[in-house]
Amino acid sequence: MNAPIDRPDVLVLGVGGVLGEAWLSGVLAGITAASGIDFRECRAFVGTSAGSIVAAYLAAGHSPPAVADRTEADPEREAAERGLAAGWLRAAGRASLAATLPLAPFVLAAAAPGGALARAALLSRTPAGSIALDDLRARIEQLGGRFDGRLRVVAVDRASGKRVVFGSPDGPEATVGDAVVASCAVPSLIQPATIGGRTYVDGGVWSPTNLDVAPVRPGDRVLCLVPTARLGAGGATPARALRLAWRSTTALEVATLRRRGGDVRIVGPDDEAAAAMGDRLMDPKLRERASGAGHRQGRRLAAMR
Fold first, then answer.
1. What is the Cα–Cα distance from 54 to 37, expressed in whole angstroms?
2. Is the pTM of this model over 0.90?
């Protein structure tokens, strides 16, 4: 039986698109509903792509808006998600690995010598996406959050291929809204974000979790939620290749944190949630299903106490 879920000192939230954000929000809401754990009280948060959205809510003192808990429709958000999904599906129609899973070639290039240079070379040949995330930026800015040492948001510098951690002591200056948009800028789909004269893309180009940038102290409990942990479980070969590459990256990052004295726990979608999400992570029609499955998974995790 799995160990009980306790409130972590550091919460790390990974990539996963529209459905990943829904699952993350659902899991956290389910754990809170069943146990009373308030994740807003964590000492630090690390968010990448979809995870950066949820982390920004929590760090600003807000609970993320789990679809299963919504009482009112949000037409503007739903319209934006439909547009994002349409762009994803148009790209996927080009029938290449990069179009089906836009982050895959950058992740697979990481194993080559000079991984950052390989990423930069790939990014230079990848068309800039056409979908703007102005609505997301506005939504995050309205939360009133700021980089005060608790929140770290990961993106990749498009020109150098190097990882950048907004909110870290040596990170570039940015608003939380701009940083989240940068972290969510999927190559070939979403417009890259320009901050301080540099251009940034999705943090998932580097890692699905970026666990190793977590500010961990000896004895800290670290909870890492990975929406893509079951990607390709249904047999999709490109998705499975991406999942395996990311799994190796995450294993190395877990080892790094454990050497620093961190107690790391990784949680991915369970069978129900994996079936609810599938591999079309940008499909807003499945958002409520993914959130509900995440909520039930969170309640089951809390029940193990």
1. 16
2. no
